[in-house]
Amino acid sequence: MFNFFSHSSSSGRKPNPNQAVDFFQNGGLFGVFRGSSSSDRRRRKGQYQRGYHPNIPPQVGYPNVPPQQGYPQNMQQPNSASSAVCPKCGASVPAGSKFCLSCGAPINTAAFCQNCGKPLPPNAKFCPECGTPRR
Amino acid sequence: MWFRHDPAGYHILSRLGGGRYGVCYLAENTEGQQFVLKRFRPRQQKKYPDDHRHEAVILSGLSHPAVPALCGIINSPSGYFFVLEYKKGKTLKHWLFRDHKVFSDSEIFRIGSQLFDILIYIHSRSVVHRDISIANITDDGEHISLLDFGLARYTDRDGGILPSLDFPYVGNVLLYLLCSGYKGDRKKPWHEVLPLTSAQKHCLLHMVELEEPFHDTKEAAEAFHSSFFPHEGNFPKEHFLF
Questions:
Q1: Rg for chain A, CA atoms, rounded
Q2: Where along the chain is ATP bound (chain B) (predicted)?
């Protein structure tokens, strides 16, 4: 089903399906850089809409959604319950990371769910996502 | 000399590439082993302080020969670095636009099937890459590697982060490869001018979501495998992993 809000970056970016051919149509060195830059894909958002909905003219029927800057904002923020403490520097380390992100010290307690692959918080007996027991 | 002080324990050899996140360098440690040092731009780190956390956690949980392992983190006066496993080969972007390589049917099949093998693995670990592109895939002639998990996230159905987000990117990569030897009309849509079989055309249209998208990775992989298998020539079967 068509979603009017589908060009929000929080629902994921999608490439222009004609991007590869666009390069060959445009040609030139300029086309190389325009054709493969991630940030450029965001700037050319209007072309996404043409690519995915070829029968709908661009900028028609779309709400005026302010552009989102940077990465999507629906990230799972590490919090104290789901993070470990670095034994070397005392910094908070997100669950699952093999290294302290502050000092680089190896963290041996990193564990991942055997079933779904998501990181397990320290001391968790079950995966918070799928409920699989920790092994 | 790239920095006033080399990152601890590493000697930087060359610059491999860069992007919005920062710059990647080829470096070797004191034992002569080669690694990639991914240096984050300080400004980006200030602006998005949690971004590199996702990449570190996701790479910590992946173990696949085609995915670079996270080997360490360096926080030094010369910058903040991820130490990553070095994967040999040139990027598909380099093969296409610098070497002007024309990819044969069997090479496209090998790259595509290996790419789906990686996708099946990372999606089974609840990881969505979200930035699969010709610049993020290296090929050494036999094996590909998928790089740059900077935009990767764990699946989040409420937040709309689904494995199917990766399929249009894969379709786009395949289109780049299919266009590499194309010399005909460049004004019409690709699905009208590229010499594709009906099954190949529909597979790609599903993949880039111009037709109903695939429901899961296995379905997409099977559709690719059945439609792109090269019937001519003596294709070495060890190159595909299904």
A1: 21
A2: 38
| Distances in whole angstroms, Cα of residue A11 to Cα of each of A1, A43, B6, B186, B211 | 14, 17, 40, 32, 19
pLDDT digits (tens, 9 = 90+) for B143-158: 999 999 999 999 998 8
Q: How many Å from the N-terminal Cα to the C-terminal Cα in chain A?
A: 41
B90-239 under CATH 2.60.40.10, yes or no: no
- Closest chain B C-alpha to A83 CA, distance in angstroms: 11
Residues of chain A with pLDDT > 70: what percent? 40
- Higher pLDDT: A52 or A100? It is A100
Q: How many structural domains compose chain A?
A: 2
Residues A93 and A117 in one domain: yes
Is A26 a residue whose pLDDT tops 80? Answer: no
The beta-carbon neighbor of B182 closest among A24, A75, A129 is A24
CA of A93 vs chain B CAs: smallest distance (Å): 9
Q: What is the ipTM of this complex?
A: 0.84
Question: Quick one: pLDDT band at residue B2, thresholds 50, 70, 90?
Answer: low
Judge: B125–A15 Cβ closer than 8 Å, yes or no: no
